[in-house]
Amino acid sequence: MPKWADVLLVPLLNLVLALIVSGAVVAYIGENPFDAMRIMVNGAVGSAYGWGYTLFYATNFIFTGLAVAVAFHARLFNIGGEGQAALGGLGVAIVALALPWPHWSLALIACTVSAAAFGAAWAFLPAILQAKRGSHIVITTIMFNFIAAALLNYLLVGPLQGAGMSPETARFPEGAHLPTAYDMASWLGFNRSAPLNVAFLVALAACVAVWFLIWRTRLGYEIRAYGHSEPAAVYAGIDPVRITVIAMLISGGLAGMMAVNAVQGEAERLVLDPVQGAGFIGIAVALMGRSHPFGVLLAAILFGILYQGGAELEFETSVPREMVVVIQALVILFTGALDNMVRDPVGKAFLRFRRAADQSGPKAGTPAE
Amino acid sequence: MDLLTVFQILDSTIRLATPLLLACLAGLFSERAGVFDIGLEGKMLIAAFFSAAIAYTTGNVWLGLLAGVAASMVFALIHAIASITFRGDQLISGVAINFLAAGLTVLIAQDWFAQGGRTPSLSGDGRFEPITFPGADELRSGFRQARADDLEPSGLSALYWDVISGHTILVYVAILAVPLTWWILFRTRFGLRLRAVGENPGAVDTAGISVVRLRYAAVLICGLLTGLAGAYLATGFNAGFTKDMTAGRGFIALAALIFAKWRPFYALGACLLFGLLQAVEGRFQSIGLFGFEIPSQFMQALPYILTVVILAGFVGKAIPPRAGGAPYVKER
To answer: What is the membrane topology here (chain B) (predicted)?
Structure first.
């Protein structure tokens, strides 16, 4: 199978299958799937207002998608993005509330570092347990998601609770507020309410950084080598414990950085569930993007469109927001679990096509038997 | 804390442990056959919805149970097709199933009942009624009478009329499922083969037994049991379906499975322990122990923390079935 079929055709076919089934679900609820599609696309990318939300969601998904992707390269399935991002939120809140920040740029740097550190710290224990004790990282990271939720729940009704009755911290000081798309680029027509903020640029930088790390550094090479074959990597002198831990720390750090967008950029306070499932969407994004940063960027924007479009859909029709969850599930199912269902026939078709071409090509002049 | 309070906590322990136990045994079948299942949560959820929805529309809880089990088994079939037939990643398939259930239940509930993603409350024949054991009512009224007469009864009889008697049928089914599971897995030919396929599928294949068929059977049994777990939640434990009502129970069941080291009777113990934690957490806001105040959130997190500790292997190492998670590719 040629490379373009592997990275483009198969994912696209998977996506089409997922959308066909989603369309069937929409039709079952009694709405026209094509109208629904039009409303979603229009609502998400048809106006600067829509883009202001779409790209905000995409920013979250870029971070969590990169997190899953980096772990995938080391053949580790980090399903704990949810918990790591929640802890990232804690890191953001602690730093943002600690000082009366003089300028947002300083606050951005400090909060990003803190968010990444907290996210990475939350990934450290599952990583070291996997590397040293062989505890299955999928199970431990799931457990850590729940432990993180309980921890946040405890802190937000206890030590970190703000002045009000609701379980959230106080509002971050003025100096820690990030400039929004309206502040930076109102000439593009962005609305004052759009949550898109400067963290989007951080996410783009993270894409480039991850690309550089994975394909242009020695560490990235080691991570990929370890992911392809552990025995071969060990034979080449790569320490599996070190690679497992480092890959998970980077993964957790990226997931944690999501909080810069969601907690510092939008909510401007830490609330009970700051991640809202974005950690899990990272799995779908990484699968669709074939764990490549550019693919992750495209897939994240696609899911951003789905999210914003889903909100519009609920607003205009009788289709609830949960439709997005169904689409997301189907994308994960078809691109992740049922991949071979499409890949095998496509591979066979290419093989047959090539054979036919070979026979009719150089042997064209030979007489038929 | 008097004896009666202890028995009340034990009573709710059993109620809370039942869905965990059914889901845990479900995972046991699947994982012993070498198919990891993190989709227990989703299968319980879809079963909870369909059992409540059908029980409400037909007014018959048994039809509801049937519908719930069927829905759960359809989801199990999706998992089987993805992870056995197409050799996809079992974990990713499980994640997809969880989301599919979370989305579809609300979507269909809104379409059918338009009550914001829930079913109307069940009553009468739409619910499983508690089964009262012979003599339980007499003992209970005897106890109440004695207390009214200031006789200060010990309350020991509550062990019978509160803890043992008065549960819905699925509770007793769940408890009976434990020895049954043990018998199937360790005393039948099917069980031997099922365990073998989770340890060394190549050997089973060499013996001329279909790995694919065995794994399908295991995953479908898993679907049946998660179906019972979900139906219990919606028609026995609660009266109707509410959005995300499984609330992580599928994952606690998964934790219990690891805690139990993939063994049926250990699973009973683990589920009762986790049920007890939930019961205690539900009853007290915080617990004073040795002069420390333990917040209820810690109790919530305790099953997960215990599982990580067990997984870390410092207290009794949990070793999963050897071929777990790996699709079987027949040599040609």
So the answer is: Multi-pass membrane protein
pLDDT above 70 covers a percentage of chain A that reads 98
Q: So what's the pLDDT on residue B318?
A: 67
Please report the residues numbered 12 through 51 in chain A whose beta carbons come closer than 8 angstroms to any beta carbon of chain B.
25, 28-30
E strand spans, chain A: none
Higher per-residue confidence, A16 vs B125: A16
**Mean pLDDT score across all residues of chain B:** 89
pLDDT above 90: residue B25: yes
What residues in B contact A138, CB-CB < 8 Å?
A: 36, 38, 91
In this complex, is the C-beta atom of B329 within 8 Å of any C-beta atom belonging to chain A? no
Task: Provide the domain limits for residue B39.
Answer: 3-126+134-246
Distance from CA of B320 to the nearest CA of A (A): 9
Say yes or no to pLDDT of A364 above 70: no
pTM metric for this prediction: 0.89
Give yes or no: residues A21 and A156 share one domain.
no
Cβ within 8 Å, pair A323-B107: yes
Closest chain B residue to the Cα of A286, Cα to Cα:
B92
Q: Of A173, A179, A187, which Cα lies nearest the Cα of A93?
A: A173
Residues A202 and A237 grouped into a single domain = yes
CA B170-B173-B179 angle, to 5 degrees, is 155
Q: Does A147 share its domain with A222?
A: yes
Task: Kindly list the residues from chain B whose CB atom is less than 8 angstroms away from the CB atom of residue A136.
Answer: 311, 320
Q: What percent of chain A has pLDDT over 90?
A: 54
pLDDT confidence of residue A369: 44
Q: Is the pLDDT of residue A29 over 90?
A: no
Identity of the residue in A147, A287, A325 whose CB atom sits nearest the CB atom of B304: A147
Number of domains into which chain A is organized: 2
ipTM exceeding 0.85?
Answer: yes
Range of the domain at A306: 32-317
The answer as to whether B73 is a domain residue is yes
Residue B310 lies in a domain: no
Q: What is the pLDDT of residue A361?
A: 60
Contacts of B87 in chain A (CB under 8 A): 340
**B259 belongs to a structural domain:** no
Please indicate whether, in this complex, the C-beta atoms of A146 and B91 are within 8 angstroms of each other.
Answer: no
Chain A residues touching residue B328 (CB < 8 angstroms): none
Q: How does the average pLDDT of chain A come out, rounded?
A: 90
Whether residue A12 is found in the same domain as residue A112: no
Q: Which of A295, A317, A339 is the last residue of a domain?
A: A317
| Res. B58: pLDDT tops 70 | yes
Q: Do B311 and A139 touch (CB under 8 A)?
A: yes
**pLDDT-derived band at A219, boundaries 50, 70, 90:** very high
Specify the number of domains making up chain B.
Answer: 1
- The mean pLDDT value for A170-177 works out to 88
User: What count of Cα atoms within 13 Å lies in the side-chain half-sphere of residue B292?
Assistant: 5
Q: Looking at the domain assignment, is residue A38 inside a domain? A: yes
Q: For residue A332, is it within any domain?
A: yes
In a domain, A11, yes or no: yes
Q: Is A246 found in the same domain as A113?
A: yes
Of A125, A320, A333, the CB nearest to B100: A333
Tens digits of residue pLDDT in A263-288: 998 888 998 889 988 998 999 899 88
Contacts across the A-B interface (CB distance below 8 Å): 149
**A132 & A156 share domain:** yes
Both A49 and A151 in one domain: the answer is yes
**SS percent in chain A: helix, strand, coil, step 5:** 80, 0, 20
